[in-house]
Write a structure and sequence with these properties.
Strand order of the largest sheet: 2-1-3-4-5
CATH class: Alpha Beta
Helix content: 25-40%
Shape: globular
Low-confidence stretches: none
CATH architecture: 3-Layer(aba) Sandwich
Strand content: 15-25%
Number of strands: 5
Order of helices and strands: EHHEHEHEEH
Distance between the termini: 16 Å
Oligomer: single chain
Number of helices: 5
Largest sheet: 5 strands, parallel
Number of domains: 1
CATH topology: Rossmann fold
Bound molecules: 1,3,4-trihydroxy-5-OXO-cyclohexanecarboxylic acid
Structural class: alpha/beta
Length: about 150
């Protein structure tokens, strides 16, 4: 069994309500249900278990990275605005062994210039940005080898 974590940072608990013209109308609990069902149908040769955690607090996100980062198969991380500000989260990604994919729902490079910089990207396996909620599924496909 391989465990994969989807980790969401600040303000992503408001998905569905928050700036729907940028982030869409779907709330994330709903989307996670869909992704869980999809993961189960795809887990044929190998079993994958999808976990989800969200926090608005930087230190709690760091604690979660430490908790799973030596045993999980992969981490799909949307750090929200912390991607653009947090050296502490970048250090946490460097410190752990589990590979991290940085995801963003919107295309951060097509938005304000302060969103073009991410402290996390250099320490991540890769970056997926701009595909709406599908950004998470694309990252999941990578970790599942699909
Ligand atoms: C975001 C992009 C960030 O710039 C922003 O601060 C977010 C969401 C995205 O998923 O598009 O909170 O990470």
């Amino acid at each position: 069994m391989k465990n994969i974590l989807i980790l969401n940072g600040p303000n992503l608990n408001l998905l569905g309500k928050r700036e729907p013209e940028i982030y869409g109308n779907t709330d994330f609990e709903h989307y996670i249900d869909y992704l869980n069902r999809w993961t189960d149908t795809q887990s044929k040769k190998e079993e994958f278990h999808l976990h989800y955690f969200q926090s608005n607090v930087e230190g709690i996100l760091i604690d979660k990275l430490h908790e799973v980062g030596f045993s999980y198969h992969g981490i799909i991380f949307n750090a929200g605005a912390y991607a653009h500000t947090s050296i502490a989260l970048a250090d946490a990604i460097r410190a752990i062994q589990t590979p991290v994919i940085e995801v963003h729902i919107s295309n951060v490079h097509a938005r304000e210039s302060f969103r073009h910089q991410s402290y996390l990207s250099a320490y991540c396996e890769g970056i997926i940005t701009g595909f709406g909620l599908n950004s998470y599924k694309l990252a999941l496909r990578y970790f599942m080898g699909l």
